[in-house]
Design brief:
Elements lengths: L3 H17 L3 H4 L16 H17 L3 H14 L4 H13 L5 H14 L4 H13 L3 H15 L5 H16 L2
Helix pairs in contact: 3-4, 4-5, 5-6, 5-7, 6-7, 7-8, 7-9, 8-9
Length: about 170
């Protein structure tokens, strides 16, 4: 059996090495402290809600250019979000000089991501009326009836009224 005195020089060397490299002895098993964040980033869901709120405020104020700016940025961050595309389509359609091409593009994306999105079905139907295509608007009205399960949901009623007004005006 070996005694401590036989290995005393080895223990002394190890202790000296540990003292000479104070962080080295703990590096392998001690986690690094977290790096300080340059700035706290809000959670993605919070940023998404903030953008939707800003967009809705701009739409309420009929600031179509402002709504389009916020929503264009938002869909770059959340490209698969149907509500963002629906609102962007709405803003393109409602501006003084409607951009139906971009409105349709965004409504179609909204419906691609959520085929039963009631608002997108209503709004694309209204866009079809602006494009003098009441048959396509009626297709979306029928789809809303199926989605809602009846004819009492707001989106169905709004599109039905728009179709009726279109037909009365274009007799």
């Amino acid at each position: 059996m070996h005694t401590f005195s036989e290995h005393k020089p080895l223990f002394a060397a190890l202790i000296a090495l540990a003292l000479a490299l104070p962080g080295a002895a703990f590096t392998a098993d001690t986690p690094e402290p977290p790096a300080p964040a340059a700035a706290k980033q809000p959670a993605p869901r919070t940023v998404h809600k903030e953008r939707i709120t800003l967009a809705r405020e701009a739409i309420q104020a009929q600031d179509w250019k402002g709504a389009i700016a916020v929503l264009t940025e938002a869909v770059q961050v959340h490209p698969g979000n149907p509500e963002l595309h629906n609102l962007l389509g709405y803003a393109y359609r409602k501006q003084a000089t409607p951009d139906l091409s971009r409105a349709f593009e965004n409504y179609r994306l909204a419906l691609k991501f959520d085929p039963e999105h009631r608002g997108a079905n209503e709004y694309i139907g209204e866009a079809y009326l602006m494009d003098n295509n009441p048959a396509k608007a009626e297709e979306h009205l029928a789809k809303l009836k199926r989605i809602c399960g009846n004819t009492t949901c707001e989106e169905y009623q709004d599109l039905a009224q728009a179709i009726a007004q279109y037909k009365a005006k274009n007799k």
